[in-house]
Amino acid sequence: MIRLFYTFVLFILFSAFNVNAYEFVKIDELYNVLEKNHSHSANLRKISFKGFDFINQLDKNFRLYNSDTKAYLYHQNNLVKSFALPQQNNHNSWKNILTDVLKIYADQSNKFQGNEKLLEDKILSVLAKNIDSYSRIENTKNEEANLIFDVFNNVIYIKSNTFYKGFSDDVKKIVYNNNLAEGIIFDLRHNIGGDFNEAIKLSDLFLDDTLIAYSKEQNETNYYTSTKGDIFNNKKIIILTSNKTASAAEVVTASLSDQSRAVVIGTKTYGKGSLQSVYNMNDQRLYVTSGLIYSPSGKIIDKNGITPQICTGIDNSCVISSKEDTSKDILLAIDLIKNNLG
């Protein structure tokens, strides 16, 4: 009877332990995303090995050694477990090995016991960064409208550090409320990109039934075209750029300049012309590159950037921006618009 009682107690404790065990769900989600949508480009062996390397930095009591075919996890010089490594790009197998290692860490490491979420977030960040140059995971943030708007000498000035959802609608309202303005300046010198669809919508406002951009994903090409009508009636548009102008901001710059709808002033843009898929993971977002964006004329934005028609860097450089007078580009843009130059 006593033995039966203790057996029952152990069963309850074991069951409770399993119910409360941390499951590393986001690691599972990441590998599932790669399996379903990015199996053509994701080298799971390389990504997982980067994870192994990072694990060795977390707790000096643990060491993870690997050959081409096996991995060995040691705790204080004692072998805890060995793993046969997959020889193919098998998402499920690599995921299982990594989560098994992390569960052992979470169970035995003084550093991460009770702090499994921190352990998962750390390893998740490493895995995401090693998918490709631009893939990453970030904490979810509330997207706040950061549009700065003014009118100088009957010229609309619009500045934003990112394209948030609804940005193109805000621009449309500004244009309609200032329909007598002679021109628009889009200051994108510190615009890191943002919502790709907003970039397409913004370009659409000022292009009349033509090509905005196109993307290539695996063997598929997608074309993004504008609807009929230019809400600004072909009046002058100037775009200000720098080496911090990136991603979606480069899409707008490339589309409007390629279609002779805007003049670009400043210095060469960053060169991040990748199309990214976004996946929500609880309190974080995973950004995974799914293709490349091309300008209407076929220019590759990625790693090349966009060179302005008018370079205003140090000694008129197209590459090195001047930090002494950031207003000179605005004044030059106003002058071009007022005198119908450029």
* Ends distance: 95 Å
Secondary structure tally: strands: 14
Question: What is the assigned CATH homologous superfamily of the largest domain?
Answer: 2-enoyl-CoA Hydratase, Chain A, domain 1
CATH classification, class level of the largest domain: Alpha Beta
**Count of discrete structural domains:** 2
Q: What is the CATH topology descriptor of the largest domain?
A: 2-enoyl-CoA Hydratase, Chain A, domain 1
Task: Please work out how many helical segments DSSP would assign.
Answer: 9
**Major pleated sheet:** 6 strands, mixed
N-to-C order of helices and strands: HHHEEEHHEEEHEHEEEHEEEEH
How much of the residues is beta strand, in percent?
15-25%
Which CATH architecture of the largest domain would you pick? Alpha-Beta Complex
Write down the overall geometry: elongated
- Percent helix, as a range, is 25-40%
* Rounded Rg: 26 Å
Which stretches are low in confidence, meaning pLDDT under 50 for 5 or more residues running?
4-19
Structural class: alpha/beta
Overall mean pLDDT stands at 88
How are strands sequenced across the largest beta sheet? Answer: 5-6-7-10-11-14
Question: How do the strands and helices of this protein lay out in sequence?
Answer:
Elements: H1 2-20, H2 25-37, H3 44-58, E1 62-66, E2 70-75, E3 78-84, H4 91-108, H5 116-129, E4 136-139, E5 148-152, E6 155-159, H6 167-177, E7 183-187, H7 196-206, E8 211-217, E9 220-225, E10 236-241, H8 248-258, E11 263-266, E12 274-281, E13 284-294, E14 310-311, H9 328-338
